[in-house]
C-alpha cells in the first residue's frame, strides 16, 4: 500500500513546546484523523509537514516526493481553522485569483459548491461568518482537483447539518482510492463517522496510530469498585481514573477482559473517552 503522506521523526522545538519525533502515515485512499487536546502539536505537525515552518529533524514525503515543488503543491488542498484568504476579496474575485494560481482550477466546480453552501459570490469575505469562511475554504480546496486534502479543524464553527454535508463530501472524495485526507479535529464524533485511522498526539508525541475500527470495536472501559480494582492484573490496564462512584479503566481487549473478569462491567469506549483517559488517567 502506498502512502499519500508519510511523516517520519518530525521534530520542532519552541521555547515552551517540543514536537518530538512524530511519525505516522496517510495511506492512499484513506481518511486519517489527527486528534489531541489544544496545544498537543496537531497544527505544528501540519505546518511542518507542509513546509510552512522549518522542521529541525525528520522526513516528510507527500505523494511520493520529499521535495514540495509546484507540481506537488497543486495536488494538495489545505484548509486551516480561521480565515484562509484575503478578506477584501469576494468569492467571485477569489475565483479569478485561483485561476492564476492553479492550472487545474475548475471554475464550474467552484461556483457549484458556492451555490450548494449558499455562499454569496459578490459579498466581501470580511463580512462572512466563521462558518461561511470555512465553507468557502473547503469549496476552494475541492476545486483544483487535489489528490491530498489536509484539513486543520475544518469543521469547527459549522452547524451539525453543514458538518454532515462536508463529511459526506470527504467520504465521496476518497472513494476511488486515488485521493486521501488528513483531518485534524477536536470533534471526535466526526472522525468516528469517517476516519479509517486515528493518530493521537499528546504533548508533542504520538501516543498511538491505529485503525479506527480497532479502537471502536476492541477498546473499552472497565468500571469497578476499589476491591475489584486492586485485584486486576496490571498488564490489562492502559490507564485508569478514580471517579466518585468507583474506578474507570481503559482496556484494549473488551471481549477478552469481559471473559477474564465476568463480574466486571465492561462498556465500549468512544474516541473522546479513550483520549480523555490517556490524557487525564494514571498509567
Give short descriptive properties of this protein.
2 domains, 283 residues, six-stranded mixed beta sheet, alpha/beta, 13 strands
What does this 3D model show about the protein?
The protein has helices spanning 42-49, 70-74, 91-101, 107-116, 130-141, 160-173, 188-194, 212-218, 226-231, 254-260, 271-280, and strands spanning 3-13, 18-27, 31-35, 57-62, 76-79, 148-152, 180-184, 197-202, 205-211, 220-224, 239-243, 246-251, 265-268. Helix content is 34%, strand content 28%. α3 (91-101) packs antiparallel against α4. β1 (3-13) and β2 (18-27) form a beta hairpin. It has two domains: 3-212, P-loop containing nucleotide triphosphate hydrolases (Rossmann fold), CATH 3.40.50; 219-280, no CATH class. The radius of gyration is 21 Å and the shape is elongated. The model has no long low-confidence stretch (mean pLDDT 90). The longest helix has 14 residues, at 160-173. The chain starts with a strand and ends with a helix. The protein has 283 residues and is of the alpha/beta class. A six-stranded mixed beta sheet has the order 5-6-7-3-8-9, with helices on both faces.
